[in-house]
Structures are given as C-alpha cells and as structure tokens.
Design a protein that fits this description.
Helices cover about 10% and strands about 55% of the residues. It has about 775 residues and is mainly beta. The chain has 2 domains: about 100 residues, Phage tail protein beta-alpha-beta fold; about 550 residues, TonB-dependent receptor, beta-barrel domain (Maltoporin, Chain A). This is TonB-dependent receptor plug domain-containing protein.
Length: about 775
Amino acid sequence: MSKNIRFSIIILIFFLNNAYLKAQSVQEEKQPLITLLKTLQKTYNVSFSYADETIKDKKATPLKKDLTLQEALEFLKLDTNLDFELINNRFVVIKTQQNTNRLFKTQRLEEIVVNNYLTTGITKLNDGSITINPETFGILPGLIEPDVLQTIQALPGVLSADETVSNINVRGGTHDQNLLLWDGIKMYQSGHFFGLISAFNPYTTKHVNVYKNGTRSKYGDGVSSIIDMRLSDNIDNEFNAGLGFNLINADGYAKIPLSKKTELQLSTRRSITDLINTSTFEQYSKRIFQDSDFNTAKNNDNFISQNESFYFYDVTAKFLYDITKKDKVRLHFLNIYNDLNYDEQSTINDRNEALNSKLSQRNSAIGITYTRDWNNTLSTTSQIYISNYDLDATNFDILNKQRLIQENEVYDGSAKMDINYIPNNQFKINGGYQFSEVGISNLEDVSNPNFRSYIKEVIRSHAIYAETSLLSNHAKTKLVLGGRLNYFKKLDVILAEPRLSFSQRFLNYFRLEILGEFKSQTTSQIIDLQNDFLGIENRRWVLANNNKEVVVNNTKTIYPVPVLKSKQASAGIHYNKNRLLISAEGYIKKVDGITARSQGFQNQYQFVNSIGRYNIKGIDVLLNKQFNTIISTWISYSYSSNNYTFNDLNEGQRFPNNADIRHAITFAGTYTYKDLKVALGLNWHSGKPTTLPDANNPVNEGEIIYQKPNHSNLNDYLRADCSATYGFYISDTARATIGASVWNILNKKNIINTYYTLDDENTVNKVENQSLGITPNVSFRVRF
C-alpha cells in the first residue's frame, strides 16, 4: 500500500470519527420531548393532548427563550416530524404527520416570517402571502367568529368602502378583480345577506392564503388579489363536530371518520331571519334594502308591502378517500343560496292588486381531486370542477302593469393538472396545465311592452405555467420565479404573465421583499341600471368579447368588454424583533381594459360605454407590538392615489377612481388572558369621491348637469368596534364559547354613497346611503 493511500485512509478515519463525535454530541444535547412539553406548559400556559405512542422515544433540541408559542411549535414540528395543532390559543394537539417527507419540505419552502400577524391565526410567509387559520384565530374588533372575508379587511391595503364582503377593494381594485377559490374551485358569489356576511363557513376552512402581489404562477384570473380557501385535506381518524348560533344564523359542522381510509366533512348554516326578528337583522335590513325597489314599495302610499321574507343557507361536503399511501381522492360539494320574497298590494279602480316580487342568488360547485405521490420528491394533483352561479329576479310594477324578469348565469368548467418536484429542502419546481370553459348568459324579459333579450357568450382558454422556488441554506433568501402562458382561442389572444417573489433577511431582524406580476382575466361585473335586480344586487357577470358585435332583436349593438390586464410591482421593508413588527411596503399597479359600466358610475358617465384604465400608487405601513401572549396592538396607515383614464371621457384627462380612498388608518388592540379574549378597534378613512351637480345650472333639458367627475369627496368615515369571547368546558369532551360584539359603537352616521335623481318637476334630489348603525351581536358555540 502506497504512502498516499495510507495517508488518505488516516485522514478519512479522522474526519469520520470527528463527524461521529459531533453527531453524538448533538444527540446528547437533545432532550426527551415530554420534558420540553412540561416546560412549555408552564411558560405559555398551554395544555398538550397526545397519545403516548405518538411521543414515545421522541427527542428534541431545547428551545430558545425568546420564541413565541407559534415559533416554538413550528420548531418542534420540524425537529420531531410531528404535527402540533393549536386550538383556541390554549390547547395543543400532537399528531403523527402523514407523508412526512413531503410535508417537511413544503414547510421549509414556506418559511414563516411573522407569527400572530395582528392576532393569532394570521401568519405572513416569505413569499409575500398571508395565511389565515380559522382554527387558531384569535379575535378582531367587531368579530366574534372568524369570518374569512371580514378578517381579510383588517390587512393593510384592503378595505370595503361600503362595509360589505361583496365589494372588497384590494389596492384600489373592484371586487370582481379578486379571484376567490374554495378548495381550488372558482366562486362567483362571496356573501350572504347580499354582502354583509361571508358565504364560506369558517369552521370547516383549514386555512386561507391571501396574495396581494407576487402571485404564484398556478393562479390565473384575479388582477387585484387571490383569496384561496382550503378545507382540511388529511384523514386523522378523529371525530370533530360543533354547533353554534348568533342573532343572524345557526350552523353546524362535523368531521366524521368512516374508516381508516375514508372521512366525510359536512357543514351547514341557515339564517334565522325568517323565524326571529332580531336587532341585528333590523340593522342589516336597513343597510341593504335602504336603496332598493323593496324599500321604495314599502314606503309608497299606494302600496302595502306584506309577507316579506328573506333567508339564506349554505351546505358544504367533502369526502376524503386514501386509496393507498400514495393515492388520494377528494370529492367536493358546495351550495350557497339567498332568497328574498315580498308582496306588493295596491287598490286601482276599486280593485285590489297583489303580486309577488322575488330575488334569488345562488352559487353551487362540485369537483373531484386526485393526488398521486410518486415518490418522496414528485407528486401530481389533478382536479375537475364545475361552478355555477345564478342571479334571478322577478319585479312587478303594479301601477304600470309591467313585469320584469332578469337573470344572470355563469357556468364555469375547469380541468387542471399540477406537478410538484421537491428534490431537497432548498429547491422546488412547480408546473402544470389548466383548461377552462366559461359561459355567461344575460336575460331581460319585459311585459307591456313585450321585449326579450338573451345574450350568451362562451370562452375556452388553455394555460400552461411553471415556476421554481429557491431557498438558501439558512433560509435567509427566498426567490420564486415563474410565468404563465394563457391562450384564449375565441379571442385569438395569447398572454404571457411573468411572476416574481424575492425575500432577503439581513441584519437578523430586517427583511427586504420585492414582488411583481403580470395578470389577466376575461370575466368582470358591470351595471346596466342601478335598479337592476330590484336594486339590491345590481351587478351582473359578463365575458370579454374585444368589441364583438352582438345581435339583439335584429339590431347590432356593440358591448366593448376587453380582456383585463394588470401589471404590479412592490417593494417592502419589514423589521421584526422582540414581538415588534414595523412594516412599510410601496407599490404601483396599472390595470388596462376596464369599462365604464364596470365601475358603478352614478354621474354623467352612468350610461356611457367606454374603455379605459386606472393607475394606483400607494404605500402600506404597519406597526404591530405584542406584549407576551396577552396583548397585541397595531396601527396601520395606507396612502394611495388612484386615477382613471378614459380617452373619450373628461377630455382624456385623468380623474379620481370611484375607489380612490387616499388615506386609511386602523388602530386596534386585543387582550387574551386564559379563556377570555377582548378586542377594540377604530377605523377611519377619507371620504370616497363623488360628483356634485353644477351649482349654477343643475338641470338642462331634463338632464342633470354635473361638475367635473369625482371632483368632490364625501365626509370622512369613522367607525369604532368591540368584541369579546369566553371559552369554557361543559364536559370532558365538549367546550363552549360565548361571544358578544358591537359594530359601530358610537353609532356614527357614515355616508358611504351619494347620488342625485331628477323628479317630474325637474328638481334635483339628493340620495344618501348610510352605513350600518350601532349593531350588536351575540353568539354561543359548542365544540365536541
């Protein structure tokens, strides 16, 4: 044996021995998991629930003293390959992870940047997205239940100018520019009670991912934001159920193991508004129906509105079947429904006339998902779904002996294949293909005089996408680069959409974040007349047609609806140390292809068909301080400048967007002590733009003459809310929670919209829509 070979063997033995000693040293540093759990129980005042076999022989590295509870649980999850599920901020359930290798890699790629963002259950990730977990959700002012779409409005840069979940403005965009997904299925309806309550049951929703920018390439549509709601997807063979009610609705849900390989998840909710008249229902009714045909008929001396009834319900079901350890099938079903009926009675020529007007709104969906884990690094997911939306109204005008039927229906069918390749903890490749067919129809049927219009458009699209995620060894740098290629055959349009997400941690406590995206969508909502669909839900879905001629009653009419295209870039700095978060993010966004009819103008442009764009520049600032796990306070400020440009309106000059809220401030705090949670908050924003009639010459030839569009503003908006919940055990297996909240404590009469009408005497009348007044609510829930 040569000297070189002998020397190499000696060096190799030395390094192997040294590595063994280091590994042994590391192993000696670890402690039994049961020991660490006892320490955590005393430190964070929590209780752990587990099977003895689950933690048997498990060891973990001792935790640092400055970690929050969420950070400690995440560390143990990675260190032990166990699941730590925090329930009600007090109880932690420890379970064995399924498909451990895949979950471990995914968790590393989605590193948490900020835990307890605003409150428990809200987390900011290093790809720029924000995740909401309703199961561990703490409390927010005015909310006693984790309403998904109300919670989103607490995030900087997100608000609703009219206080509804069906009109959420994310960085100045309209609500139809948000993509809502329920278990991967696109939704076209977001609210119950015509926007005051989220239509999605939070108690079966596992988590919600929110993207304001830097969207993953697998998402199409949604030029303003992505709101991706996901139900639990793992079978844990544990029964879980709950019942609850508040002054608006009652609900129940159950997670039922059928066998070791199958599980059924069910939930249902129904309003009690047609059974009990509560103060909360009265306030909601006053807010929603104040400017509708329903309220007009009720206040008209010629009519007596009687036997009016309103109710809503939703039903969801998910069936889980693990065929093998590598093959999984999931079936999804959802049905959302709102129904309003009212009678109009009048005496004409000594004759009683009574007719029934009604409005119904529904979104149903069904889908199937198949997941295959080929090995520890490669998996594929295939999904097919059908989503159907229908808005149907029948309106009778007794005086004019006229009946109007209106219907807006959306049929959306989609098939997609998603591929994930994760060779190691630092690298991931994601790609796939999606086919969609969307058909939208609009019906108008009038009697006296007889008129009928039915228009249906269909668009089929193909999309391929790919992206790669890179994570540095110490998780300080995260880079996601991707793109999406869309082809719309009918429009003969190909659109390329690059996506970027970059995150860099430096000086230990600072993080730089750069996000960018190109996006597009072919669906949008427009308003033909403000009193369409009884004036309650007057928006209707339409498809892009790129100025196609539409034939109605042998007359060619052009309804220009382009494909919406957006570009957005943002950069932010985040500082996070000792439970203090300081965040500032600036952004610029441009959206092309908007139509005047999609913006809800109620001025000189109300009946104009025009194509334009809007540009918005802004900054979101957040200061969030947490004191231990008891108190969390935050103040956020958003500034934005949002302007329209229509080449053939306002002489082509820019003017303020209808959603141009220049300044918005939120100040709030939460207090959590054991089973008691309390929240108090204040919301203020500058008044939205409005257009006033000309002071010198308000009327000319039967038309209102207006000043410059959106040249004035409504009064500033101010609202204070509070809420409190308390949890307690009513048996060894049942836990109850009671809650109470007050929306708009100060009963501030906020004007959220103003417009003008002309009566028979050519007099201009001012119409003001008010926000919700002081609105109390109470709830009671039991979880088994």
